[in-house]
Amino acid sequence: MLHIANARHRGTLVDLLADGDRIRTMTPAGRFPAPEGAEIFDATGLVLFPGFIDAHAHLREPGQEYKEDIASGLTAAAHGGFCALMCMANTKPVNDTAAVTSFMLDRARLSHPLGPRLYPIAAATVGLKGKEMAPLSELKEAGCVALSNDGRPLGNTELLRRIMEYAADLDMIFIDHCEDPHLAEGWLMNEGPVSGLLGVKGQPDVGEAAQAARDIMLAEYLGLPVHIAHVSAKLTLDVIDWGKARGVRVSAETCPHYLLLDETELEGYNTLAKVSPPLRGAKDRDALRQAVKKGLIDILVTDHAPHADHEKDGTLDETPCGITGLDTALSLTWELVRERVLDEADMARLWCRRPGEIFHLPWNDFVPGDPADFFLFDPEATWIPEPETLFSKSSNTPFLGKTLYGRVRAHWIGGQRIL
Amino acid sequence: MNADDNRYFWPHKDLLDVTQLSPEETLHLLDLAERFQDINRRPVKKVPTLKGKTVVLFFAENSTRTRTSFDVAAKRLSADTYALGKSDSSISKGETLKDTALTLQAMGPDVIVVRHSNSGAAGYLADLLNCSVVNGGDGWHAHPTQALLDCFTLRQTWEGNFSGRTLLILGDIAHSRVARSNVHLLSMLGVSVRLCAPRTLLPAGVDAWPVEVYADLKQAVRDVDAVMCLRLQLERQQAGLLPDLAEYSRRFCLDAGHLALAKTRAKVLHPGPLNRGLEISDAIADAPASLILEQVSAGVATRMAVLYLLATRRD
């Protein structure tokens, strides 16, 4: 048994008792002595969080191991407070067969047998090409927990409908990267005052919102759930609000960078801030902050998208979209706690409870019997993201060189200490 | 004139956009250009000012006019010039912009003039390289020497007075580095700037620009002191931003009828190359009101001033 003593938890001090891979009790600090023989961990000064679930990450293996591989991605996740991670299908080859899924799971088991746990996301169409439905039943059996066409949004609504219907039989939820494939073609950033001055092609917010509206209407018609990936625009929030008010089973995610940054990051052609969907205006950022607080946005995800230094070195036209997030997400979310936008309970809801509920994954609410997935976080420790401090193989984040607060000091998954 | 005459402290290593220039710096540069204009009118047009300096003309996007203008400017100052174009540069073999630029720098130039189709390319090189970088046009972003030469031309025409003057910029504003740089520079100097274009060729966020926007050319041209026509790239029609070119020319081709609505002695500019009959009528292009050839000679003088300031500056 493991006795975590004197941890900070939502404004109080608690003791946590874990037995094997389960939570036994969480009690006010000092009320009960540690059971005889229990391993005792003094958590004084540290904040206790349930293990986080990242429902959207790109781990690049197989095929682009120079950017990231499953081992390095899971290491970054472990240090970032994640006990579980869902990886997107845009690998090379694409995760559209059981063989690729099994390969990913084998790699994860080999490098991180104790976790973080890996849950692959199936490609919705063969090769993500948007033509034929992928063998979803085979993928589900191999271990995929959801499906998506990732960054290759489906323009063909008929195909999307059939995929959603077919996936419903398998109890798999469709995750949509919402982007009108024509309205948004060839963009480098948000369309707005900054793109106008920089002289680069922008993507209007309606390119995201219109596609989200389509998905929500389709989900309502079919009576099925749909999950909207990385919401970046206020307009999309309005559409989601409308859908939820109608009772549509729509859930949505956003990333810390959309809550902390806006399109002005691109001034000076900062390729580290080039991301899909693009950083929007300050109004969008502020609306997203409110939406995560009140639950209109259900979950936070990293959309961890590693790229090598040489790929991000160049002009906006030449460089790929993407920001890494597994290393920084926890500190960035804590930044919102420091700014009193969110509190600890919001963090647990956004990073643990809701992703667990939406994707039917085990999650810890510190109720007896819950999985013993938790970590201890030092909120006063400062650190600076740099290639040397990041566990990811890549360091393409606009937060590079900035001082962040908070480090994971100890991390247990299934009752086993991994850090 | 020799290098010791550069007593004016020029603080900029590079010329990336006119947004980096103060009004005083702009006027100093234009004054200097006027002195070079005098040299250009002499029978022997060459001075030894930049003897021993090296200027690389790195034009990764096709350009004849701007490259030739820089080449003439540098040679009149006795600098050595080396040109690298899109097809003969290793870019065509897949070398990155970074590696091409580092290779060029290793040859020890004092100034690199860069033309590139990507917005931000000149700034990227300026951050990378120790030598001076002059932006010869980057994507849709900026073309500072064009704006400076336009400013030079208008200043001579308007006898030095910018305030109270109105300039209309006509055509594809959205994809025009010439328009972006001119809007900033001329409005900074006190010129009222109007834009006229179909909505599909206006940039995002134009509402916040210091301009008045018109969709109708007859209204836009009323009482202006000068009209700057922009070249319409034919690919805009293929990209679906316009119906056919005949319709574009019916709405936006500047002709004598329009110019009659402007102020008497209103002038016409065009950065070239011209699409006669598309954005500017044949008659107007060749009319006395046209400053198009003055712009070309102003270009040499202005670029001489830019090269001089950068190649002789002391940190």
Give a description of the structure.
The complex is a heterodimer of chains A (419) and B (315). In chain A, strand 13, helix 7 (234-245) and strand 14 form a beta-alpha-beta unit. The two termini of chain A are 17 Å apart. Chain A contains 12 helices and 18 strands. Chain A folds into 2 domains: 2-42, no CATH class; 50-417, Metal-dependent hydrolases (TIM Barrel). By secondary structure, chain A is an alpha/beta fold. In chain B, strand 3, helix 4 and strand 4 form a beta-alpha-beta unit. The two termini of chain B are 20 Å apart. Chain B is 37% helix and 15% strand. Chain B folds into 2 domains: 3-142 and 296-311, 3-Layer(aba) Sandwich (Rossmann fold), CATH 3.40.50.1370; 144-291, Aspartate/ornithine carbamoyltransferase (Rossmann fold, 3-Layer(aba) Sandwich), CATH 3.40.50.1370. Chain B has 12 helices and 9 strands. Chain B has a 5-stranded parallel sheet. A 4-stranded parallel sheet of chain B has the order 2-1-3-4, sandwiched between helices. Chain B has helices at 23-40, 65-76, 97-106, 121-128, 144-157, 177-188, 217-220, 235-238, 245-252, 256-259, 282-285, 292-311; strands at residues 54-59, 80-85, 111-116, 132-138, 166-170, 192-196, 211-214, 226-229, 267-269. With 315 residues, chain B is of the alpha/beta class. Chain B is globular and about 50 Å long. The longest helix of chain B is centred in the C-terminal third of the chain and has 20 residues, at 292-311. The interface between A and B is medium-sized, with 20 and 25 residues.
Descriptive terms for the model:
heterodimer, A: about 425 residues, alpha/beta, TIM Barrel, 8-stranded parallel beta sheet, 4-stranded mixed beta sheet, 18 strands, about 20% strand, B: about 325 residues, Rossmann fold, 2 domains, 5-stranded parallel beta sheet, 4-stranded parallel beta sheet, 12 helices, 9 strands
